[in-house]
Amino acid sequence: MSANTKVKPMSADTKVKKSDAEWRRELSAEQYRILRQKGTEPAFTGAYWKAKDKGTYVCAGCGNPLFSSAAKYDSRSGWPSFVQPLAADRVATEDDVSHGMRRTEVLCAACESHLGHVFNDGPEPTGLRYCINSAALKLKPE
Ligand code: FE
C-alpha cells in the first residue's frame, strides 16, 4: 500500500486490535455491550431493522464492509437481516451454546466484534438469515 493512502481500505485480512480501554472510549455504552460483550439489542429498537436505504453496512467497530443493502430482507424479527455477507471472509462464525441454545455466532473477521447470529431459516438463494444488531452496523449510503 502506498504511503500517501489517506483512507486505509479495510479487508478481512486486515486484523484490527484495540485495547479494552480503546474500545470503551470509541464505542457508545450500547455498542460496547453488544460488540465487545456479545450483547443483543431489543428487537424492533435498532436503527436499521426496517431500513431500506441502499448502501453498504460496515462494522461499527472498525469499518470493515460487511453486508450490502441488496442482501437485506424483511425477516420480521426486528433485527436487520441479510442472506449473505459481502464476501465470505468478511465475517467469522463460532459455535455459541449460551442461553440454553445452540446457535452460530457471527463476528467481524477484522476486529472480532460480535455482530449477531446466523440461522438456517432464511430465504433463497442462500437459505441463511444473518441476524445482526443494528448497533454493530453503520450504513454507508450509496
Ligand atoms: Fe470490525
Low-pLDDT stretches? 1-8
Which radius of gyration do the C-alpha atoms yield? 15 Å
Percent in strands: 25-35%
Ligand roster: fe (iii) ion
Strand order of the main beta sheet, please? 3-4-8-7-6-5
Overall mean pLDDT stands at 92
Shape: globular
Q: What's the total number of strands?
A: 9
Helix content: 10-25%
Distance between the termini: 25 Å
Number of helices: 2
Would you spell out the secondary-structure blueprint of this structure?
Blueprint: H1 20-26, H2 29-36, E1 55-59, E2 65-68, E3 72-73, E4 81-82, E5 91-96, E6 103-108, E7 114-119, E8 129-132, E9 137-141
Antiparallel strand pairs: 1-2, 1-9, 3-4, 4-8, 5-6, 6-7, 7-8
The chain binds fe (iii) ion.
Describe this structure in words.
There is one protein chain. Helices cover 11% and strands 28% of the residues. The protein has 2 helices and 9 strands, in the order ααβββββββββ. The longest helix is centred in the first third of the chain and has 8 residues, at 29-36. The protein starts with 19 loop residues before the first helix and ends with a strand. Fe (iii) ion binds next to loops. Fe (iii) ion (FE) is lined by residues 16, 59, 61-62, 64, 108, 110-111, 113.
